[in-house]
Design a protein that fits this description.
Number of domains: 2
Low-confidence stretches: none
Function: Catalyzes the conversion of GDP-D-mannose to GDP-4-dehydro-6-deoxy-D-mannose.
CATH architecture of the largest domain: 3-Layer(aba) Sandwich
Largest sheet: 7 strands, parallel
Order of helices and strands: EHEHEHEHEHEEHEEEHEEHEHH
CATH topology of the largest domain: Rossmann fold
GO molecular function, one term: NADP+ binding
CATH class of the largest domain: Alpha Beta
Strand order of the largest sheet: 3-2-1-4-5-6-11
CATH superfamily of the largest domain: NAD(P)-binding Rossmann-like Domain
Radius of gyration: 19 Å
Bound molecules: NADPH dihydro-nicotinamide-adenine-dinucleotide phosphate, guanosine-5'-diphosphate
Structural class: alpha/beta
Catalytic activity: GDP-alpha-D-mannose = GDP-4-dehydro-alpha-D-rhamnose + H2O
Organism: Brevibacillus aydinogluensis
Family: Belongs to the NAD(P)-dependent epimerase/dehydratase family. GDP-mannose 4,6-dehydratase subfamily.
Length: 323
């Protein structure tokens, strides 16, 4: 029988890759579409699936719209990806971030509880929960120490998901995903900012790359690999929480070098450190331990950082050429 998935945040990076993945598995896919003044389907169009998805008007801030959408779509699985997802903006818009990234999760859980508590739900939790890390390698057992309004909001969502599982027996799982990138990553995130700027430099449209803390380390993977883990979590017998990561960590500076090396340029000739881009509180290093996901989900990342950054630079070279 055909399964139905409902994705919030379907217009975002992960929403687009997940929709494609589920369509290829034969799912009927519906997505929540918040009202915006201009169309934001570009990622779904990039993957050639914009016409294969059903859209439901709604916003995670509006519980009634979620209840209506869940009633109409009748999903087997809900993937709750919608969020104000950029850590940097969360200091400028902390209240909006708390509402969308935190309360939005509770709205989704409530909508499911109200309409059909048998619907399975995936919650997009984040490695940002670990923030000021309490262990060199972070696993499902590592205590959290969030370091931004974004991370504090995600902490609320994480515990609400766990609480609804324990209180009402709902199948609700947290994926604690470490940073994952792709050619569809938003331009405000550091990987995409670097790969897009490299393409602009190659085209002669930019002369420098301005960055903040280049010593920060992240465990970067490919979004296309990570959406499979989301799906696998909802195919298990029992709901649970899983770290999804590569198990390697790299500095922002080294990631930059990979991008510039690919086009035969020396990053040091273009990099400018801009103190304005430093954050009020930094997450210095993240390194995930995906052992549980490997053991229980049979999931492993397929794409290494060099391959990922090359893929992103290549896509941006094409985009800049066509612009
Ligand atoms: P994006 O920022 O690319 O996508 C966010 C999505 O949320 C967009 O579709 C956006 O719609 C939607 N959205 C924002 N506000 C609302 C709202 N009020 N109502 C309904 N939808 C809304 O994020 P990613 O795809 O990268 O990430 C997906 C999820 O995973 C997010 O929750 C993120 O925090 C989390 N995550 C991401 C990681 C990563 O490295 N990518 C790591 C760990 C967790 P619109 O574009 O119209 O605003
Ligand atoms: P995050 O891990 O979700 O905050 O993902 P980002 O891609 O936004 O940031 C990753 C790291 O890169 C953080 O430690 C940032 O401080 C660092 N960084 C350094 N310069 C920049 C920059 O210009 N933009 C962004 N977004 N991050 C930067």
């Amino acid at each position: 029988m055909t399964k139905t998935a409902f994705i919030t945040g379907i217009t975002g990076q992960d929403g687009a890759y997940l929709a494609k993945f589920l369509l290829e598995k034969g799912y009927r896919v519906a997505g929540l579409l918040p009202r915006r003044s201009t169309s934001n389907l570009w990622r779904l169009e990039y993957l050639n699936i914009a016409d294969e998805v059903e859209y439901r008007d709604g916003d995670v801030l509006d519980l009634s719209s979620l209840i209506r959408a869940v009633k109409a779509v009748k999903p087997d699985e809900v993937y709750h990806l919608a969020a104000q997802s950029f850590v940097g903006s969360s200091w400028e818009q902390p209240i909006l971030t708390a509402e969308v990234t935190g309360m939005g999760v509770l709205h989704m859980l409530e909508a499911i509880r109200e309409v059909d508590p048998g619907i399975k739900m995936y919650q997009a939790s984040s490695s940002e929960l670990y923030g000021l890390i309490q262990e060199p390698m972070q696993s499902e057992q590592t205590p959290f120490y969030p370091r931004s309004p974004y991370a504090v909001s995600k902490l609320f969502g994480y515990w609400m998901t766990k609480n609804y599982r324990e209180s009402f027996g709902m199948f609700a799982s947290n994926g604690i995903l470490f940073n994952h990138e792709s050619p569809l990553r938003g331009l405000e995130f550091v990987t995409r900012k670097v790969t897009y700027t490299v393409a602009q430099i190659v085209a002669g449209r930019k002369k420098e790359l301005r960055l903040g803390n280049i010593h920060a380390k992240r465990d970067w993977g490919f979004a296309g690999d990570y959406v499979e883990a989301m799906w696998l979590m909802l195919q298990q017998e029992k709901p649970d929480d899983y770290v999804i990561a590569t198990g390697t960590t790299t500095t922002v500076e080294e990631m930059c070098k990979i991008a510039f090396d690919y086009v035969g340029l020396n990053y040091q000739d273009y990099l400018v450190i801009d103190p304005q881009l430093f954050r009020p509180a930094e997450v210095d290093v993240l390194l995930g331990n995906p052992a549980k996901a490997k053991r229980e989900l049979g999931w492993m990342p397929k794409t290494g950082l060099q391959e990922l950054i090359h893929m992103m630079v290549e896509a941006d070279l094409q985009r800049v050429k066509q612009a």
